[in-house]
């Protein structure tokens, strides 16, 4: 058994400058990749041993892709980098005064520190929702949703109680951002093309998919055109869209909205908000709205040699007064740009401010139903946007292998309308649901 | 939340004969498939919602294949069968007197009952081994091993204690049957081709792979030629093979063998034996060595209308006095054969005794290293046996999709020596290891 006093980070001493990166998401991973041939030691901390391609996480949640298809282990990704060190460990705090990072198993001095810890689900302080809702930010969470969806249909098949069955067949998705829209569209396509054949004993006209959004439009970060198109696509697929509706409470059985309306459901997917995954030790005056204020070279306000990139960073600019959108592109670009600036600093050359190159945004509702906002006020929809979505996502997927698997899965689905992988590998079991616990037993042979 | 009094099996009443199958492994699945166009109602019970291709389970455990690649959901498999009903539920007992099966959520009368519940790990009553060893019979167990292996290397990277590091790098596999041989060979290939690049900070000459076997040969069920070849292949790959060696105890830290020798290891993989996954209600006089005695048409000894097929069935014949081997082929053939006999019984025609058509046995050690015993006393090894192994396993893999994914994974590995999927999706955590628990935290962002 492990004992703390026998553990240490075991990072070799070096005379080279040491760059410590906290978090290997789009920002941290691209920074580390861009530092490959720079004469620095790179140390990457992450609590997972893989980089996930989060834009496709909803596919894992709706049984379209294997979890492994959207993830790439850091060890493999960086196995040809010299003086690169990955440690799968949580960072507890940073201390800019002593230039030290404190992890569960020891401290490490840095020359440059980059906080790329991303975002986490925001439950707005509602502990009951946090306990019962299904967030969708990590692979284990996506697998929980996959198990939950399939278990709902299995359980609906064995209940005699119509109210219970209805509650098992009601799916409520909080938040009409890309995650919520993609989840809802994907579920609606399952209902149309897959589930009736799988569960001939169930009446799928009873299955309801709700998307509820506090703001007045679908896809709030995108254009009005895109939002309206996406809403129409969702409604064409039979999804019930409720705008200007906020979730007030959820006890695992009933969602109550502000205003009093209630829906009985066993499944509330939480895509209603994120907040920065902060780390202790960042001065309070450097924080705003749960994110870290940075200057135009991503340096944390008030600190030297500490940087923040990606979702956790809040860079106020004229064009982006609320910061850059919390999607992959700003993180990727900031990671690559910071690598260049670090090299400039090492050579005592002047740094260059970050400028976000907005390539546009895409969201998918279903097959042949996607929306795109492109630079130059161009708005696409339908099949063309869908092809663009497919192309962009395959293009950016990390690593040759993932691309091949995802591509073959997609081609297969394209021709057959089948979903890949409707397996309940680890049943999702609420600890307080004793019966589900017993019925969905695992690990032992029947 | 589910309540028992609101649940029922919800199997529609029918005037057709009802065939109830317990377990959807090779036997049960093939029986159900073969009954497709027979005028019966088929009810399949299984505690998993998928059929697994168990001969490739070791690949999941050693990060070579995704779990989803070797499994196919029953719902999908049978979505075009009429009057077929799958229920994901455990069978508690059977009552031949009333022709009833009792599950957690209700009883069901049968006209014909087929027990195809397979086998489970046999710890020979040693509770300590059962608690600490890693069995390899189910997909969650394989994923536990995958997580454990990768966590061992991560943890070996952060310990300063040489004894702890050695114990993390020692892997002991109990049992030199096909599972043990395949696990050991696969681990040895990882050590050779993958791990040194992934973990440049570790010295892999310290990594030891032991296979211990109580009998005097490797691959006891196969020919002496095959066993000797497999042993040589293993030793060529640097695996330490210990024959005539029985595990006496394992406390999670130290394996002690009968005779007193000890090896410190964090990982004992248990492939040392299986026993029938029995169900309450089978008369004691119908059991022998943990299996169900059946007559030549797989009817359970002493019962009418109750059959047992596959690993759980013990059919004594002149050629197979100890029963058929516990592999896929007898189960598949018995499933198909029983379907034919059921049709004959329905038409009041005489049944025909089962005859096992032995197609031979195969086991794989690594790339270009496999052994085959073919009918006619033919023994193959090396590249030819390996090609045969590849061909047979792809051929029998269930479902078009799995075949494509597995095939593309294999082709990829063939050309790159890469393993697919070295992800710790759900860390394996011993409840009593508090530090590992904290370090391998999951689900939250770094």
TrEMBL record, chains A, B:
Keywords: FAD, Flavoprotein, Membrane, NAD, Oxidoreductase, Transit peptide, Transmembrane, Transmembrane helix. It comes from the Bacteria. The chain crosses the membrane at residues 378-398. Belongs to the NADH dehydrogenase family. PANTHER family: EXTERNAL NADH-UBIQUINONE OXIDOREDUCTASE 1, MITOCHONDRIAL-RELATED (PTHR43706:SF47), NADH DEHYDROGENASE (PTHR43706). Residues 359-413 form the External alternative NADH-ubiquinone oxidoreductase-like C-terminal domain. It catalyses: a quinone + NADH + H(+) = a quinol + NAD(+). It comes from Spirosoma taeanense. This is NADH:ubiquinone reductase (non-electrogenic).
């Amino acid at each position: 058994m492990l004992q703390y006093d026998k553990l240490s980070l075991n990072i070799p001493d070096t005379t080279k400058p040491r760059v410590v990166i906290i978090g290997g998401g789009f920002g941290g991973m691209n920074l580390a990749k861009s530092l490959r041939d720079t004469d620095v030691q790179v140390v990457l901390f992450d609590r997972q041993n893989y980089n996930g391609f989060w834009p496709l996480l909803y596919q894992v949640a709706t049984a379209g892709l294997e979890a492994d298809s959207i993830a790439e282990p850091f060890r493999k990704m960086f196995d040809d980098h010299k003086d690169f060190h990955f440690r799968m460990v949580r960072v507890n705090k940073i201390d800019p005064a002593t230039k030290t990072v404190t992890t569960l198993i020891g401290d490490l001095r840095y020359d440059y520190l980059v906080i790329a810890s991303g975002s986490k689900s925001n439950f707005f302080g509602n502990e009951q929702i946090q306990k019962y809702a299904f967030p969708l930010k990590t692979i284990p969470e996506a697998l929980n949703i996959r198990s939950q969806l399939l278990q709902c249909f299995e359980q609906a098949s064995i209940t005699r109680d119509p109210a219970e069955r209805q509650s098992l067949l009601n799916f409520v998705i909080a938040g009409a951002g890309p995650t919520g829209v993609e989840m809802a569209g994907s579920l609606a396509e399952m209902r149309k093309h897959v589930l009736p054949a799988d569960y001939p004993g169930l009446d799928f006209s009873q299955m309801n998919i709700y998307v509820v959004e506090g703001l007045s439009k679908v896809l709030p970060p995108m254009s009005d055109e895109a939002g309206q198109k996406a809403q129409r696509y969702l409604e064409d697929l039979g999804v019930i869209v409720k705008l200007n509706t906020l979730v007030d409470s959820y006890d695992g059985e009933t969602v109550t909205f502000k205003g009093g309306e209630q829906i009985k459901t066993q499944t509330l997917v939480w895509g209603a908000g994120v907040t920065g995954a902060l780390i202790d030790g960042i001065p309070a005056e450097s924080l705003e709205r749960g994110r870290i204020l940075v200057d135009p070279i991503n340096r944390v306000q008030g600190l030297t040699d500490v940087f923040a990139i990606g979702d956790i960073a809040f860079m106020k600019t004229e064009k982006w007064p609320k910061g850059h959108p919390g999607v992959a592109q700003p993180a990727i670009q900031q990671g690559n740009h910071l690598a260049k600036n670090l090299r400039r600093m090492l050579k005592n050359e002047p740094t260059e401010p970050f400028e976000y190159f907005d390539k546009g945004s895409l969201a998918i509702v279903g097959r042949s139903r996607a929306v795109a906002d492109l630079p130059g006020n161009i708005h696409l929809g339908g099949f063309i946007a869908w092809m663009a979505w497919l192309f962009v996502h395959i293009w950016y997927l990390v690593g040759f292998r993932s691309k091949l698997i995802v591509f073959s899965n997609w081609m297969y689905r394209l021709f057959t309308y089948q979903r890949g992988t409707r397996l309940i590998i680890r049943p999702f079991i609420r600890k307080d649901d004793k019966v589900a616990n017993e019925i969905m037993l695992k690990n032992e042979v029947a």
